[in-house]
Write a structure and sequence with these properties.
47% of the residues are buried. Among the domains are: 167 residues, FAD/NAD(P)-binding domain; 144 residues, no CATH class. It has an eight-stranded mixed sheet. The chain is an alpha/beta fold. One of its GO terms (molecular function) is oxidoreductase activity. InterPro entries: Amino_oxidase, FAD/NAD-bd_sf, Zeta_carotene_desat/Oxidored. This is FAD-dependent oxidoreductase.
């Protein structure tokens, strides 16, 4: 390892939520931190940028849900006000409006999960169909985010899970699979039952307000990442873009002593990896050391999902009833969302026309289409939900194809996910796909694992204060009792 006569050197790979979180905290503790980002700007797939015409675009819109308390704490610390108010949302099929979701925290509180079930407004799905989900509550009680629970459910697909617990075919097709397509980014037969239970419990079942969501009032890159990066640099942290990592070198004791980017080397005392699955697979493929270790070789078994992000500028104002919406049934294996950016982004609030973002997940069959054909499809699909969109003219558009952009939690994938600590003592993992017992999800999970990796570095050098991580809200009393009874019963059966 490099000399420790001065502040320890830490190299962080990947400038998304995890990498920026780790870098920021270590810089605050006086570490010499260098953040390496392969792209042209920090933020990775979350950040936005400007087109040649000066219009803002980004690689998909990202929501910030009620349980994201660590991210909310971060923006407060940075003195930022990046978010909209809480928003209502809707779900559409080719038949029209199917579901409306209220702002749950404004509704009278009910014990979980009664509020979610009673206040969600289904337009066509009858009560008796929805009641077929009741047996599934046992699986949500049984799945407590422990290693044992992940292994128990992970090899089963979500489709098999819903069949096993008697969920009706109609409820699955019109409620649960649409959630999977926009939450886990794949059809039910391609999603891990464990990941499904984790997502459903975290966002929908645990506490009544958990599905409430706010959005950035512009791109995440401009509203959060840019000022965050400025704060990191003011603390002495270095952020270097255009640095694609190709290997990590080890010393004679098996510790990481340098991060390699082609012909460049960055000497280091510790390394935090904060890249996604596809990014790490690219590093492993080019590495002279990582591929020979079983844990990294097994990462090559993991998958990622294609995303298509589009933006349409219309020549007139169109009334879109709710700012955030999801669609299902338009393409068999693809989920999609669309957003009224006039209502969400300050930049477009007073625009003469309408600006709509539409994002498609598991978009394999759309990626090869021409930009023109994609724009026509997007306008046609949105017009099915909001007919006035079909009467407007598209005066500008953006189409962004993102190959292998988001994590695919496939059945059987848990055994190949990496924990924070690797077999290389001073190499730590973070990201939304890394195993953590915190219980968070998506962007919040990525940020939390970045803090956990920073804390591991601080413990390694016994230097600095660890980050204070806000735990997820405890289970409600009735859920705690049922989980304790379930654990006791499982223990007796063993």
């Amino acid at each position: 390892m490099a000399s420790l006569t001065t502040a320890p050197k830490v190299t962080v790979i990947g400038a998304g939520w995890a990498g920026l979180g780790a870098t920021y905290h270590l810089a605050k503790q006086g570490y010499e931190v260098t953040l390496l980002e392969a792209g042209a700007y920090p933020g990775g797939l979350v950040a936005g940028w400007k087109t040649d015409q000066g219009k803002s675009v980004e690689a998909g819109i990202h929501g910030f849900w009620y349980p994201y308390q660590n991210i909310f704490g971060l923006v407060d610390e940075l003195g930022l006000k990046p978010f909209t108010d809480w928003t209502r949302s809707a779900q559409y099929s080719p038949n029209g409006l199917e579901v409306e979701s209220p702002i749950f925290q404004d509704c009278p509180p009910l014990p979980a999960p009664m509020g979610t079930f009673l206040y969600t407004q289904f337009k066509r799905l009858p009560v008796w169909e929805r009641a077929t989900a009741l047996p599934l509550l046992y699986a949500m009680i049984d799945f407590d985010n422990s290693d044992e629970a992940w292994r128990r459910y992970d090899k089963m697909s979500a489709r098999e899970l819903f069949q096993k617990f008697g969920v009706s075919e109609r409820l699955y097709k019109e409620a649960f699979e649409p959630m999977l397509l926009v939450g886990l980014f794949a059809p039910g037969e391609q999603c891990s039952a464990a990941a499904t239970l984790g997502m459903l419990y975290y966002f929908i079942i645990a506490h009544q307000p958990d599905f409430d969501v706010v959005w950035c009032r512009g791109t995440v890159g401009a509203e959060i990442f840019r000022p965050w990066c400025e704060a990191i640099e003011a603390l002495g942290g270095k952020i270097l873009t255009g640095k694609r990592v190709t290997d990590i070198s080890l010393d004679a004791q098996g510790n990481a002593n340098a991060v390699i980017c082609g012909e460049e080397q960055f000497e280091t005392d510790a390394v935090i990896s904060s890249v996604g699955i596809s990014g790490l697979q690219n590093i492993i493929s080019s590495s002279a050391t990582l591929g020979d270790r079983a844990e990294f070789a097994n990462v090559m078994n993991l998958g990622s999902v294609d995303v298509l992000a589009t933006r349409l500028w219309l020549d007139r104002k169109v009334n879109i009833p709710r700012p955030s919406n999801a669609g299902f049934g338009f393409d068999e294996t693809t989920g999609w969302t669309f957003f009224d950016l006039n209502a969400l982004h300050d930049e477009y609030r007073d625009a003469a026309g309408t600006v709509i973002e539409a994002d498609f997940y598991h978009a394999n069959q759309l990626m090869a289409m021409s930009d023109g054909a994609i724009v026509e499809k997007v306008q046609r699909d949105i017009a099915t939900c909001v007919p006035a969109v079909g009467e407007a003219n598209v005066i500008d558009s953006s189409v962004i194809r993102l190959k292998r952009a988001v994590t695919h939690f496939a059945p059987g994938s848990y055994q190949h996910l990496l924990p924070r600590q690797t077999s290389i003592p001073n190499l730590y993992m973070s990201g939304d796909w890394v195993v953590t017992r915190h219980g968070s999800w998506s962007q919040e999970k990525a940020y939390v694992t970045g803090l956990e990796a920073a804390n591991a570095v601080i413990q390694q050098f016994a230097n600095g204060e660890t980050a204070k991580i806000i735990p997820i809200q405890p289970d409600e009393p009735q859920v705690q009792v049922l989980r304790e009874l379930n654990r006791a019963l499982r223990g007796l059966l063993k």
